[in-house]
Amino acid sequence: MTVTEPSSARSAPASSGRRRRRIGALVAAVPTLLVGAALVAISPGTAGALGLAPAIASTPAAVAAPVQWRWPVPPPIRVVSPFRAPASPYASGHRGIDIAVVPGATIVAPEPGTVSFAGAVAGRGVVAIDHGGGIVSAIEPVDALVAEGQAVAAGDPIGVVSSGGHCSGCVHFGVRIDGEYVSPFLFLGGIPRAVLLPF
């Protein structure tokens, strides 16, 4: 049977198709990154919290699963608002996750990269890191400890939590692939299991 693409799909830029395939491959890789404990930790609404809807087709096996990033905030990890994919680039949504954190806490780089921005946006401090391959992470509100163009390794301090932003007592962490926001859980792999220590 022959399947014919709609004319709109044939006229779409090649870069848009590549971006959809890359994001689709990341979405397909999520089940291998998540463990049962992580799924329990982020219930209810696991699929929505992970930003897996709407599903993106075309997932070539040639694209490798991403390396699991480290969390940019110190433990314990508590996500207070999940990623909510917008219906269109200009529609409402939540283009990242909000993570509870105390003021003054040190924020670290989740993966190696180069600082692509360190400064104020709309009155709040933002640090963005280019991880290569079109992948950029950003976190706010923070007072930067790094400068634009500086190379950082995973775990390097990049800033301290400051005030501002759209939530109180938390930071907003977002990830883009080729300019398109995706769920940070694609890279973080879920919330770490809580460990109870003896008295």
Provide an overview of this structure.
Mean pLDDT is 74; it is low at 1-13 and 27-65. 31% of the residues are buried. The strands form two sheets. Strands 1, 2, 4, 5, 6, 8, 10 and 11 form an eight-stranded antiparallel sheet that branches. The protein has five helices and eleven strands; from the N terminus they run H-H-H-H-E-E-E-E-E-E-E-E-E-E-E-H. The chain is an alpha+beta fold. The N and C termini lie far apart (66 Å).
Question: What's the layout of helices and strands?
Answer:
Elements lengths: L6 H5 L2 H20 L2 H6 L4 H4 L29 E3 L15 E4 L5 E3 L4 E9 L2 E9 L2 E6 L1 E3 L6 E2 L4 E5 L8 E8 L2 E3 L2 H4 L11
Antiparallel strand pairs: 1-2, 2-10, 3-9, 4-5, 4-8, 5-6, 6-10, 7-9, 10-11
Principal-axes geometry comes out as: globular
Radius of gyration: 18 Å
Mind describing the biggest β-sheet?
8 strands, antiparallel
Mean pLDDT: 74
CATH homologous superfamily descriptor: Glucose Permease (Domain IIA)
**What is the SS-derived class?**
alpha+beta
CATH class: Mainly Beta
Spatial gap, N to C terminus = 66 Å
Number of strands: 11
Named at the architecture level, the CATH assignment is Distorted Sandwich
Q: What string, H for helix and E for strand, traces the elements in order? A: HHHHEEEEEEEEEEEH
Helix content: 10-25%
Low-pLDDT runs: 1-13, 27-65
Number of helical elements: 5
DSSP strand content: 25-35%
